[in-house]
Design brief:
Elements: E1 5-7, E2 10-12, H1 19-42, H2 48-69, H3 83-116, H4 133-162, E3 170-177, E4 180-185, E5 190-193, E6 195-199, E7 203-210, E8 215-218, E9 226-228, E10 243-248, E11 253-259, E12 271-277, H5 279-290, H6 302-307, H7 310-322, E13 352-353, E14 358-359, H8 362-370, H9 372-375, E15 388-390, E16 393-395, H10 402-414
Parallel strand pairs: 3-7, 6-12
Antiparallel strand pairs: 1-2, 3-4, 4-5, 7-10, 8-9, 8-11, 11-12, 13-14, 15-16
Helix pairs in contact: 1-2, 3-4, 7-10, 8-10
The protein binds heme C (HEC) and copper (II) ion.
């Protein structure tokens, strides 16, 4: 259901709550005690068998119910948090209830037939029936009516979620790249990667574009999958043909997603985090981004420099002078101009790195800088020991030693 979070020690799945099964067990035990008492009462009576049967069914139902609510599903498609998600959810529920009606009718007819036409002792073989006009019309028309009843709201829903929001929408330019996501908010001048903060209650329009092959933007609790294509068609008048996704967040929280269109070796390791927050928290995140992190640049004032963590200062030196990270990465407010890789402004404030695959800790940053390929095969970033070729240009191994890598991690973590 969700992307595994890879760690230095290997892959780990998010720990599931142990409370679910325990509650299930307690429910089952008390149900057992209850029905046991009833059974004792009924002992000797001929419906004891029926009671025993009911107890079995009761147990099964309780277990099914408890196991359905004992866990938290991070990428659930049936727990929407946007207006778009609610449209899909309502369609899903309509289809579900239609199926339940069909099930009930089929079972009722079957039960009737089983009782009414069961074989009686000494009975003669009945004559088979061939063709029944009434029945055939009924079972052609009934499904047709159901299909129409589902089609009408479906078409309405498709148009509803495609319609651009009225009023002041927050436009975010989303670019999918192998194997990460760039988010640019032109109105606020913010450019970030993999983790997008959005305000609750304000309409959002994602403008989707790919920097290479076809990807698909999919954060299940926000809505359906939407293809992220390279721009291939320019309409008359110069308008580019591209996909958009419109929604308004209803809830705060962290919503997980991932690329949903096979795009290469690390396709399954191309995660997304959307952080829904209040307007104030969102504004705070934006203004953090707009002001340069205090440690991003060397302090002009020497007295300030002496109070700074020397490891951070050392990391900054490696980042800007001893290595060539700046060819691919930018940091707002500094001279780093690169756009091949994710924008690293306030990277220390992200909850994960490597597009949701590693928790953002100094240890994981070290692992990533030393050997990104061990986390993501096919990654377009060089390691300490290996080069990478991006669009025909070869970037040599960084040849960084442990001391330099530790300092780089401290520098990146300090910018939060
Ligand atoms: C050839 C270009 C290139 C160079 C040079 C490069 N990187 Fe990267 N870097 C990338 C790409 C591409 C990614 C995205 C990888 C992915 O997640 O698929 C990345 C991702 C990262 C990330 C994770 C960001 C996130 O939010 O997921 C960090 C941190 C990082 N690089 C640090 C560095 C440091 C430090 C250096 C210098 C030693 C460096 N990079 C050099 C291309 C580069
Ligand atoms: Cu992809």
């Amino acid at each position: 259901m969700f992307a595994p979070v890879a760690e230095a020690s290997g892959k780990r799945r998010i720990a599931r709550s142990a409370a679910g099964p325990r509650i299930a067990l307690r429910g089952v035990m008390s149900l057992r005690r209850l029905t046991q008492a009833r059974l004792n009462q009924a002992r000797g009576m001929k419906n004891a068998n029926l009671l025993r049967w009911m107890r079995q069914v009761g147990l099964l139902l309780t277990m099914a119910m408890v196991s359905a609510c004992g866990e938290e599903y991070l990428q659930s498609t049936i727990d929407p948090v946007t207006d778009y998600g609610e449209v899909s959810q309502s369609l899903y529920l309509q289809v579900f209830w239609w199926t339940m009606i069909v099930l009930a009718v089929v079972w009722a007819v079957m039960a009737y037939i089983l009782v009414r036409f069961r074989e009686k002792p000494g009975q003669e073989r009945p004559k088979p029936v061939h063709g029944h006009m009434g029945l055939e019309i009924a079972w052609t028309i009934a499904p047709a009516i159901i299909v129409v009843a589902i089609t009408i709201p479906t078409i309405k829903g498709v148009f509803k979620v495609q319609r651009p929001p009225e009023g002041d929408a927050l436009v975010v330019e989303v670019t999918g790249k192998r194997y990460w996501w760039s988010f640019h908010i032109p109105e606020l001048g913010v450019t970030t990667a993999n983790e997008l903060h959005l305000p609750v209650g304000r309409p959002v329009s994602l403008r989707l574009e790919s920097g290479d092959v076809i990807h698909s933007f999919w954060v299940p609790r926000l809505g359906g999958k939407r293809d992220v294509n390279p721009v291939v068609t320019v309409r008359e008048g110069g308008e580019e043909k591209r996909n958009w996704m419109h929604f308004t967040l209803r809830e705060e929280g962290v919503f997980w997603g991932q690329c949903a269109e096979f795009c290469g070796e690390a396709h399954s390791l191309m995660g997304i985090r959307v952080v829904g927050e209040s307007e104030e928290d969102f504004q705070a995140w934006v203004s953090d981004w707009q002001t340069t992190a205090p440690t991003a640049n060397a302090p002009e004032d020497a007295s300030e420099a002496t109070t700074e963590n020397p490891l951070v200062a050392r990391g900054r030196e490696v980042f800007f002078r001893e290595s060539y990270c700046v060819l691919c990465h930018s940091i707002q407010g500094t001279v780093a101009p690169g756009t091949i890789g994710p924008n690293l402004t306030r990277v220390g404030g992200r909850s994960t790195i490597a597009a949701g695959m590693l928790e953002n800790t100094p240890e994981n940053l070290e692992l990533w800088i030393r050997d990104p390929r061990s986390v993501k095969p096919g990654v377009q970033m060089p390691g300490a020991q290996y080069d990478v070729t991006y669009e025909g240009v070869t970037f040599p191994p960084t040849n960084l030693d442990d001391e330099q890598i530790r300092a780089l991690a401290a520098y990146l973590s300090s910018m939060r």
